[in-house]
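SAMPLE LOG
Freezer: B-3
Tube label: C17
Construct: single chain, 725 aa
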Amino acid sequence: MSTSTINRWTNKAYSAHCRVMRADAEALPVHKHRSDLSDTVRDNPVTIIVGETGSGKSTQTPQFLLEALDKFLDRKMICMTQPRRLAAQSVGDRIANEMDVEMGTIVAVKYRDHDTTSKATRIQIVTDGTLLVIAKSRPTLPEYGIIIIDEAHQHSIPTDLLLAHLKSLLTRRSDLRVVIMSATVNAKVFQDYFPGSKVKEVPGRQHAITYNFLQNPVSNEDMADEIARTILYVHLEKMSGNILVFVSGVREIGKVKFVLERLLHTHEDTLTATEMGELSVYTLHAKLALEEQQRVVNDPQPLPRHGHPGRKVILATNVAETSITIDGVTIVIDSCKAKSNVWNARTESHKLSEAPVSKAEIRQRAGRAGRTSEGEVYLMCTEKGYKEDLPDYPVASMLLSDMTSACLHIMKLGQSPIGFDYIVPPATGTIVKALGLLRMLNAVDIKVNLLPRGEKITSIPTDDIYTATALLASPDFGCSDEIITILSMIEATDGGSHLFRPVADDEKEEKIKLQAAQKHFRHITGDHITLFNVYMAWRDACSHKCEEAFLERNLLVGSVLKAADRTRKQLLSMMYNVDGWELKTLHRDSDIYYNRILQALFAGNYLNVAMRQPGKEPRAFINARTGLRVMLTKQSAIRHATKHTEWVCYNDCYMDPEDGESIRLVSAITPELMVAAQVGFWWNAELMADGLVKERLLVILSGMSTLDKDVMRRRMPAPTEPKSM
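STRUCTURE (predicted):
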């Protein structure tokens, strides 16, 4: 950093607060290496920086590169990616404060529906998904002179696609420099992928961290109890400072919070206010609004009470793992678990799996504790389990995920998914399945070229191709407003699973209240209109200033409904930029109101249609396209087997531990409306495999077209006996 007392960007003296921050920054390990790193970046197309958590690489690298390489950049920006919005905002705010400039001037942040970039911007912090969107519209990325990919070890799909695109782009842009950074990056993987790249290591944490292991393994059922007991033990016995707890998911956060509150209540008789400091419990996960996430990070630590330290306890998913600093954390408690969706290309279903995290991720999490003082880490595994059972590095997302959206991204970047230079190649079968689905959606042609519909899908800000297809189709049915509302509710509620407050089995009155609320909103057609009803009722309550009473009466989670409202506004603002898309609203008193909404949903989800399987099991269905047997989730609003629920469409197929392949977010529709929503697809029913579904479809098509069923089969005439000569 410059030693001048005048800020070159504002021509004013640095503020007192900024001088303190700059002094702290100069004490970071990376500061000593800034000259060497700047020279290396200038002289090499690709530089790989390996720096442990606490080295200061995320906040300092863009600053010293701008200072040292300003002439080299020639007014181009430095762009740095982060895996999540919270990390992007936190890093951007920190850099702006250290440079003593207002956000939106020299430093800017850009992510979904948020952009503070101006003509003056020189450092831009973005999410990796945002940079991928920019690359799809401007493949040469001409506005950037240096692109920094931070947290590269996470191998998110956007990050890995960007690395491949940048590798190709470097052959066309000799003026571009790429920097790959992470605390735990497997440098050899990236060095092999970028031949000739330079690796630089930066020392990390400034303070010692002590690791503590369990004496005996703990089961998943007892994990919440073990974590809660550890929190209480640390609070009563250990050094002052905040506690950061990593668990695998939102449900697990709720379990730990419930057990912890129960333990604190139990100890009220034995631990008075004079014997224990205040404990403020926060939750941190991706479903929270950004403002709520920032409050968790920025709220002050409780003051000491009667000589006992006050603490913040942050119960978090891996959203807190990277590039954010929660001040005052000295203790990390790690469940050593994480959840991921594993895609099965054969059945087109996913399985939400909880699995051990890697050693690299544990080191990254542990680094949260050693930033400002000595720290301690409590791992919910034995030392033997840590050494023998945990992988060294995390599995790349491309090896676990559905690749349909990724294939579209690759084609939009001007390349082919088949010959793409993946840093971690996915299975060939996954790519073939993805291209087959895109072909049936009329998004690509037989030669794997993007069609107009595929072009439009890539412009919609969602990784769910069925959501994008429904959004594109909705104006044709006059209900684009309603479809955006339903899809926003699906995203915010994680498919409806987080909509109602959880109720314990022993809370009988609350269970009756919950069942009554669910029945009140339930619609006969199924889950999509049910979600729509909840949102519209909440909006009505908000307009009448009785939101809190409405939420309490129906046991609904207000933060989830607010998240749906934010998502709806974001989607609306983005869809206005999609060529040919219009906002249309149906009249509520129309006789075809719900039918039109269902048709629009079916127009997007026509590959996910199932017919009820005859027999004694009313929840058993057959996928109309694949012939696979699937089970209707027990939580669906569709409760009875009737002629009106013989055909359904669904948003999600997943692996249930008890039922196997199961479908959720399900709505029923009459077959005539189903066919009318996507005539071109269903008219080829004769090409389907023989079976019950094909027979029923041919009967339906015959009735709609007045053609005989055998004509619909397009059979050749029956053979005749040869005439004798």
